[in-house]
Amino acid sequence: MAQMLMGAIAAGFVVAGLFFFRFWRQTHDRFFLLFAASFWLEAMNRVALALLEHADEQEPLFYLVRLIAYGLILAAIWQKNRTRR
């Protein structure tokens, strides 16, 4: 049951990433590309959690992937809101 839920969550992340990727293709705004990459990283993280036999969400490697994904979101927001000269 846990693997099925992880798969559903990963599928949701992939769909969200595709949603942002579609907007990036229309606007070529890096904001949308970074959001898409962040969601796809989260999807890969969930797939790895589901497929690895003794995987635990509390392992530092999985937190590192999340940190990178959230860092991409923060970088996208910062880049979008910085003042242009």
From TrEMBL:
What the entry lists under InterPro entries is as follows: DUF5985
Q: Where are the transmembrane segments?
A: 6-24, 31-49, 61-78
Keywords, alphabetical:
Membrane, Transmembrane, Transmembrane helix
Report the protein name in the record.
Uncharacterized protein
* Protein origin, superkingdom: Bacteria
**Matching Pfam families, A to Z?**
DUF5985
